[in-house]
Amino acid sequence: MSASLKAKIAQVFEEPGCDKNQGKSEKERKKGCTKQLTPGAAAGGCAFDGAKIALQPIVDVAHLVHGPIACEGNSWDNRHSASSGSQIYRTGFTTDINELDVIYGGEKRLFKSIREIVEKYDPPAVFVYQTCVTALIGDDIEAVCKRATEKFGKPVIPVNAPGFAGPKNLGNKLGAESVLDYVIGTEEPATTTPYDINIIGEYNLSGELWQIKPLLDALGVRILSCISGDGRYHEIATAHRAKANMMVCSKSMINIATRMQERYGIPYFEGSFYGISDMSTTLREIARLLVERGADPELKDRTEALIAAEEARAWERIRAYRERLAGKKVLLITGGVKSWSVVSALQEAGLQVVGTSVKKSTKEDKDKIKEIMGDDAHMIDDMTPRQMYAMLREAKADIMLSGGRSQFIALKARMPWMDINQERHHAFAGYEGMVTMVAEIEKALFNPMWAQVRTPAPWELEDPLLREQDAAQLASEAAAG
């Protein structure tokens, strides 16, 4: 691992936005707050994957992966991050290094690849991602990117986050560091207003940002930049002129918010777009910060008027769903901001959350779960597939909300499942998204298919031995769980 990468990882670990981290001694703080990957373990993504996930939603730049082609295939187009314009971010660029490059070095191939991208596509910038193989052979992507910037007159941004550096969350932060070091503050906006904000850690999954933007437009609040969903390079380069920052997922990009507060004096808060009450709280916080930073105090009155109208409409639209969903139990297997923000939304829909995973959540996330669910909050640090299966089969939960990797556990248990993570095809943000979420849960729970798949086969009804074996299996799974 290069000295520059070690220094950057140490800087990320010295996170001023984390109360738990700052409570440690200086020696303990420098050890870091993330577990290193265990070779061979399914850790949910490497550092490179995390950096690519965090930055790829910047839609008008070319994202070039310097490494074997499999690395680009692993991370490309798997997040449903939508664009309102350029589609170049969906083009998979890779240097596709081979055995000779491993022996002789891949820096020349990287430089040629950057030149080809600039000549063919002319993007406003090129992001270059380091991978395990090219880091191990010593390719200096910072030097190549600096030379390419001088040669071609375009920003070429090195993202030094090889997979072996750590898990996906560390990669999110290393990608954010590249934006801080090479992008933010490099340009000036054409105009500024007292109503300019940045939204950080929002990826516009299935167009969720577009459900929030009309609400802000109605208040006269301008999104100066979104980092990184539906983002534009030149907008992010001017992000230092915003009056306030909203942090959506602190697990991924909190370092951008804290560094911008240190460097430019921009205050930030962490909010959620999920659920009716949390959406309203977020709008109030945005208005409060902007007024404190010089906006007209009348903004608060406009905000309250908008909230009253939108809440009334949303509650009326989900009223019928609430009656059907009342008392239904949900197992929530996700992480980060969704571990608490989605809980609030589910409770508003009349659902009972019997467990929420906190494997990828911060201490602040866990505190918010306790605040929402009370001291008896069932927080799951690391539930095994066998435990999930037993919980569903014993009907301790009526439906599981999770990412795509857990869906087959629910399907095996013949229980409803709904995607709540990045692969989903529905936008759940804002007041409109809340209605969509409740409607999708209702459709999943009351799909007549479940009654059919749970019905025993004719030969099982006729054979009492099979019925006894099935009962014994359930008892064994419960004991193992």
Question: What can you tell me about this protein's structure?
Answer:
- Belongs to the NifD/NifK/NifE/NifN family.
- GO terms for molecular function: nitrogenase activity.
- This protein may play a role in the biosynthesis of the prosthetic group of nitrogenase (FeMo cofactor).
- This is Nitrogenase iron-molybdenum cofactor biosynthesis protein NifE.
- One of its GO terms (biological process) is protein-containing complex assembly.
- This protein is α/β, with parallel strands linked by helices and 481 residues long.
- It has three domains: 180 residues, 3-Layer(aba) Sandwich (Rossmann fold), CATH 3.40.50; 119 residues, Rossmann fold, CATH 3.40.50.12380; 148 residues, Rossmann fold, CATH 3.40.50.12380.
- 51% of the residues lie in helices and 12% in strands.
- It contains 23 helices and 13 strands.
- The strands form three sheets. The chain has a five-stranded parallel β-sheet with strand order 11-10-9-12-13. The chain has a four-stranded parallel β-sheet with strand order 2-1-3-4, with helices on both faces.
- Strand 5, helix 11 and strand 6 form a beta-alpha-beta unit.
- Helix 10 packs parallel to helix 13.
- The chain is globular.
SSE diagram, text form:
Elements: H1 3-13, H2 19-22, H3 26-30, H4 47-55, E1 62-66, H5 69-75, E2 93-94, H6 99-104, H7 107-121, E3 126-130, H8 132-136, H9 141-152, E4 156-159, H10 168-182, E5 196-202, H11 209-219, E6 222-228, H12 233-237, E7 244-247, H13 250-264, E8 268-270, H14 276-292, H15 298-325, E9 329-333, H16 338-348, E10 352-357, H17 363-373, E11 379-380, H18 385-393, E12 399-402, H19 407-412, E13 417-419, H20 430-445, H21 449-453, H22 458-462, H23 464-480
Parallel strand pairs: 1-2, 1-3, 3-4, 5-6, 5-7, 7-8, 9-10, 9-12, 10-11, 12-13
Helix pairs in contact: 4-10, 7-9, 10-13, 14-15, 15-20, 16-17, 18-23
Domain Nitrogenase/oxidoreductase component: 46-445
Function: This protein may play a role in the biosynthesis of the prosthetic group of nitrogenase (FeMo cofactor).
GO molecular function: nitrogenase activity
